[in-house]
Amino acid sequence: MAPGVNGKKVSPEEEHPVKVFGLVSRDSSGHLSPFSFSRRNTGDNDVAIKILYCGICHSDLHSLKNEWRNTVYPIVPGHEIAGVVAEVGSKVQKFKVGDKVGVGCMVNSCQSCDNCGQGFENYCPQIILTYNSIDKDGSMTYGGYSNMVVVDQNYVIRFPENLPLDKGAPLLCAGITVYSPMKYHGLNEPGKHLGVIGLGGLGHVAVKFGKAFGMKVTVISSSPAKEKEAIERLGADAFLVSTKPEQMQAAINSMDGIINTVSASHAILPYFPLLKCTGKIIILGLPEKPFEVPAFSLVMGGKSLGGSCIGGIKDTQEMLDFAGKHNITADIELIGADYVNKALERLLKADVRYRLVIDIANTLTAA
Ligand code: NAP
Ligand code: ZN
Ligand code: ZN
After folding, report:
1. Which of 3, 56, 197, 200 has the CA that lies 20 to 30 A from 217?
2. Phi, psi values for residue 71, rounded to 5°
3. Is-cis flag, bond preceding 142, omega within 30?
4. Residue 109 alpha carbon to ligand 3 centre in Å
5. How would CATH label the architecture of 174-307?
6. What is the pTM of this model?
């Protein structure tokens, strides 16, 4: 029981009367299976969204397998949500039924701290993530591997008319996660040289944003087979294989900044020499093991190591509008809901070009 409207105690069924279905994992095997659950009614400030597509982010995989030691089971992942508005609350003015919208990694925050006030809801100490978080009513949040979601209007992003929902869905996490650090670390200026480590979901959209900003972009990858596509299809200017010392050596002292999107534990030391003096490496990937960073690698050349977590709501809207203007979408493989476990196996092996997106509306069925 929890306090309801006017402090009246309400039962979980009254609080969450809307029947929904999705894909759940009940343990750290991460295996997904059909699940029926409930969501709250559309509140005054809420938008109910019929989910059409949901991208599969590597964070979903880390969470499903409890690699960050914070997963609460059962878990319904998914935070690259694209769909259409099905219902709006009485105080919602920004959206109407039928609008094309998206939801990323967060569905609420305190809305009153300094970080929220500055548009950095992503750094709010009370951020409520789209899944595996405790919602304002005390229930666990369940994500976008499901047929509908109810979200506070302030955390809903509008899709530009020309941006397709399937190829646009991954921008709600992968897109903003690379756009925000590029913006705040001056890695969006024409003529500058950006390095992108890891050509996966995040990495391939980083290449596209970098090129749209007018930068020189070099991909640094552990997969030589991705070179042709990186240059011919994604528009990268150069491609380095991280395991080939002669290629790394030829690129020393050349990059203004590097964003590191690698999901697996790896050595970061070999990347510092690629930076010009005062250059930065921004960590986005979240492997389990800590990095080893000798002081000399930073001190010599005045280099910095930073990190960044998704992005604020205003920036997410700005990113999606920018993507609409420059026709930036993810390169996706659209999959059926019944393929999702196989999809996760492939993601683990970096065998994805470059984002898997679940065709929720056409393939997800009730348990
Ligand atoms: P992804 O599609 O799996 O891409 C990760 C890439 O890392 C792979 O394509 C691969 O690129 C490289 N890689 C994988 N294993 C490697 C290894 N053992 N050694 C070297 N490189 C390896 O994953 P993603 O969805 O882009 O997410 C990337 C990471 O960012 C994940 O850890 C995810 O949790 C994290 N993330 C963080 C935020 C944030 O807010 N900071 C948001 C979203 C995701 P190559 O084949 O080119 O080497
Ligand atoms: Zn993500
Ligand atoms: Zn806050």
Report:
1. 56
2. -80, 135
3. no
4. 5
5. 3-Layer(aba) Sandwich (3.40)
6. 0.96
